[in-house]
Amino acid sequence: MIRSLLIANRGEIAVRIARTAREMGIEAVAVYSEADAGAFHVGQMPRAVSLGPGSPRETYLSIPRLIEAAREARVDAVHPGYGFLSESPEFARAVEGAGLLWVGPPASAIEQMGGKVRSRARMREAGVPVVPGSDPAAQSDEELTAEAGRVGFPLLVKASSGGGGKGMSRVDRLEDLQAALAEARRLAVAAFGDGTVYLERLLERPHHVEFQIFGDRAGHVLHLFERECSAQRRHQKIIEETPSPALDPPLRSRMAEAAVEAARAVGYVGAGTVELLLDEKRNFYFLEMNTRLQVEHPITEATLGIDLVRAQIEIADGARLPDGWARLTPRGHAIELRLYAEDPITCLPRSGEVLEYAEPSGPGVRVDSGIARGSQVGVEFDPLLAKLVVLGPDRKAAIERARRALSDWIVLGVETNRRLLAAVLSSEEFVAGRYTTDLVSRLSPPSGEPPAAAWVAAARLLERSGPGGSAAAGGPTPAGDPWGEATGWRVSA
Question: Is 292 a catalytic site residue?
Fold first, then answer.
């Protein structure tokens, strides 16, 4: 029934959703801010609608502008992707109020689970174990200070509408709490339009494990197994894998049952993810539920051989969960690596023009990308550039494939976290499957010679500049110095 679909997002997720839409015979329509008119995702769709000038808050986070764009494009449905307004019940209601189909869970489920404060309270009611934290009603500095004494230190200040580590910080002393609250609120408002925060006890050295769940309008809910997400920097995942090396079958079954119960408790429909923390004593706790598609969904697709975006669209259009899903069994081992435009040591965002770009290939290799050669990368959006997904017959083979594919990936002109990803893949704890959420904080990116792909990219840059000429980045490149303008590759930190 859906003939056209507005994708209310940008970057690699917009491109990925559009790919499935094309396979389904659905016209994908892009949106873009004035400053984003030349973005990669815009050129990947047959139609695109401008959201006008302004910051992300005035464009991609503006419900009126997005609804106006949907009406202008005369689409049948809206897919929010992830981030931006994907977990906004107000946006879901506005889409449906405009007579359009919302490709996502009901607004009521988003309200109960999308906000971390509300979701924690709802899970307690449902009997799902929850990480100890502050009272949901406590929002003033005075109330949260009192709650901090009860929760105990170290603790985390977290944004209720947050995700991806935005609006989250660790606090070890009461004296640092006020500054952390102010910073968390500021970041939460900028990223999600909601300054609600809460406190959560910090579990030292846990595993972060999430379960992919799906529900339909007939009341059926099931899980599609787990993803291990413990390789994080500053509470942001950078590498995910499935199956999790931390789980055995009995524990996997108990955690999956809790995830399904969490979704059933709120009448969930569509794709969602229940995130759990597993402590050193093998106790698990509900962390949060993401009422949307996850960045790391491709590794579930790889091991199960299904298309989660197609299922999202079909279920939004009234279909039931596929009969065969209850009998799905993962095959092989999949790993996802997130490529960010950032300094691999400080993790601060980087910007620039992508001077050269070439993706790895081969059996079991997939790249979901939001950039191409010539793309301009700014700091006003999330720094995620692309995702590398590999599938191998077992975990050892998947790690080896990931290392090879990562070394073949050419990104020149913008500094990335590639060396940090390589450091994680090579670490003894990761290889052994014994790593927890503190692994990345204890690693140092390796120094030494760059991979062969870097030399290839540098040679291409010199080739385009010509003898004594100017490189694509502008300005002269000294003869014999391939690194003169190649700021995306460095021999050492």
Answer: yes
Enter the CATH code of domain 132-201.
3.30.1490.20
Instruction: Convert 35-59 to b/e letters by CB count within 10 Å (16 or more is b).
Output: bbeebbbbebbeebbbbeeeebeeb
What are the tens digits of pLDDT across the range 173-213? 999 999 999 999 998 888 778 888 999 999 989 999 999 99
C-alpha distance from residue 239 to each of 128, 138, 186 (Å): 27, 34, 27
CA 165 to chain centre: 10
Angle (deg, nearest 10), helices 297-304 and 308-316: 100
Q: Which member of 16, 120, 185, 292 is catalytic?
A: 292
4-103 CATH:
3.40.50.20
CATH 3.40.50.20 range(s) for the chain read: 4-103
| pLDDT exceeds cutoff 50 at 480 | no
The count of residues in the chain is 493
What is the location of CATH 3.30.1490.20 in the chain? 132-201
What are the backbone dihedrals phi and psi of residue 155, each rounded to the nearest 5 degrees, phi first? Answer: -140, 170
Q: Does domain 207-442 have CATH number 3.40.50.720?
A: no
Express each pLDDT in 103-123 by its tens digit. 999 999 999 887 777 888 888
